[in-house]
Amino acid sequence: MAKMIQPQIGETVADFACGTGGFLTSWLKELETKIQDTDDRELFDNSVYGVEKKQFPYMLCITNMLLHGIDVPRVYHDNSLLKDVLDYTEDDKFDVILMNPPYGGSEKTEVKNHFPSDLASSETADLFMSVIMYRLKAGGRAAVILPDGFLFGTDNAKVAIKKKLFSEFNVHTIIRMPHSVFAPYTSITTNILFFEHTGPTKETWFYRLDMPDGYKNFSKTKPMKLEHFAPAMEWWNNRREITVDGFDKAKRYTVEELADRTFNIDLCGYPHEEEEILPPKELIQQYQEKRASLNADIDRILAQITEILGIDMEETNE
Fold first, then answer.
1. Which of 2, 77, 80, 222 is packed most tightly, with the most Cβ within 10 A?
2. What b-and-e string marks burial along 104-130, b requiring 16 or more CB atoms within 10 Å of the CB?
3. Cβ(85)–Cβ(127) under 8 Å?
4. CA 143 to CA 124: how far, in whole Å?
């Protein structure tokens, strides 16, 4: 993600749930090769900003920054969701945002109150997406890892978040990642969304990154490596639609086509994937997300039918 974002001297990067600082160090490694003088070094030293709410990862992140030559790290022990997003000013915005927001969590009403009512999802990853949108500078770039539930979800809050995302930002690329990328921490399948604050989306490319040869699963002892992204990086600079065994592996969609799907953007997925037995908590969460999405679809279709038939459901219920 840091490679494809292409950091430049003078830019600032943020991660609002930075954990031990993996994205920030990746940014520093990419940026360090571009330092040419002492002025560049000063800009480099002040280029990262992180927030982490858990004490232990926060301390590890500070240590990580010190080990990477950042003497006064701009990393804070705080919760990024506890500030009204409408209160952010230009000074609170960044050129680049690299994130893997926490997902699977459910936030309380007091947290949701910091967001406009239509964006006030209870899902943690959704709320972080709103924070990202409000804190990315005009002309800025972002790469964000999100679970499948964000792609296929069509409940009111998710649709509102995706409408805002596609109408105000250019979501140019979505990389579908193989399962078990984050094993053993989570089995939920994830995706990388690349977008820029340069105006509305016109078209979005989807690319499915398949499991490398010789791998059935990733694990702690056999993790995903940068080299496994080679096919996606090669495709990135020479984009074309790809079909394998009759299924889309890479395809371009117009924003109108995505809107017609009520922003269910579960596209170019994995057709032959074996059914995986998830841990109970993740299985329940997946079912809840799918049920919420189906309920939203059913409500929308029923509303369209009743409107066509001219039936007033409130009178019927009385």
1. 80
2. beebeeebbebbeeebbbbbbbbbbbb
3. no
4. 17
pLDDT of amino acid 316: 47
Cβ atoms 137, 54 nearer than 8 A: no
Q: Which residue has the tokens 């990642």?
A: 177
- 136-147 and 94-99 as β-strands: parallel, antiparallel, unpaired? parallel
| Residues 6+ away with beta carbon under 8 Å from 283 | 277
Counting DSSP H helices and E strands in the chain, the numbers are 12, 10
What's the pLDDT tens digit per position in 129-178? Answer: 999 999 999 999 999 999 999 999 988 999 999 999 999 999 999 999 99
Tokens for 68, please give them: 């990477």
Amino acid letter, 48: V
DSSP label at 211?
A: P
Task: Report how far Cα 10 is from the mean position of its chain's Cα atoms.
Answer: 24
